[in-house]
Amino acid sequence: MPGPLIYIDTNVFIEGFELPLEQAKPVRDLLEGLRGNPRLAVTSELALAELLAPVSREGALPLPVKRRLYLNLLVWSHLFELKPVTRDILLETADLRQAAPHRLPDAIHIVTAIQSGCTYFLSSDKRIKTPSGMSLVYPDRAGVDLILNAWSRQA
Predict the structure, then answer these.
(1) pLDDT of 12-47, one tens digit each?
(2) 70 within a domain of the structure (yes/no)
(3) For the chain, is the Cβ count within 10 Å smaller at the N or the C terminus?
(4) Angle, CA 150 vertex, CA 4 and CA 36 arms, to 5°
């Protein structure tokens, strides 16, 4: 029986690979746990586009390095269920934004998580409002341990 599905927001990948190792450790531990539970994590192709966009912040990875890293992780590793942005997602996104104020990318991520049947939404974004039945979890030690424990109970 598969464990709870987790939706991983773009900022979690950035924390795991573009911040100092001590800040990245919980996310890295989650990804290591995912190796034993492949396909229990979902993200959107929107996340891939957001991750590959150039940024000007100090310490940002060079674009060729980012491209190789995130394509390997999100596409070629098969650890994630990478969901396309479909017309149905966009239509439901418009409905969600009428019911609750979300920025467009956040709403696309939330609707993708809803349509994927996710139990958890992992994000550092404190503005995210998840629907009933889906828990917002932060990518800190407590949040990652919560998810890893849920997976181990399902095994």
Answers:
(1) 999 999 888 999 999 999 999 988 877 799 999 999
(2) yes
(3) N
(4) 80
Q: What CA–CA distance (Å, rounded) separates 22 from 43? A: 24
**Residues 56-70: what's their mean pLDDT?**
87
Region of 39 (left: φ > 0; alpha: ψ -120 to 50; beta: rest) is: left
CA distances from 40 to 13, 17, 21 (A): 16, 20, 24
Q: Which residue has the tokens 């394509």?
A: 71
1 occurs within a structural domain: no
Q: What does DSSP assign to residue 124?
A: S
- The number of beta carbons lying within 10 Å of the beta carbon of residue 113 is 28
Say if 55 falls within a structural domain: yes
Task: Please tell me the predicted confidence (pLDDT) of residue 113.
Answer: 97
Residue 123, pLDDT above cutoff 90 = yes
CB neighbours of residue 23 within 10 Å: 13
Q: Which residue has the higher pLDDT, 2 or 136?
A: 136
Give the C-alpha separation, 23 to 19, whole Å: 6
Give me the number of domains the chain comprises. 1
What is the domain range of residue 138?
A: 6-154
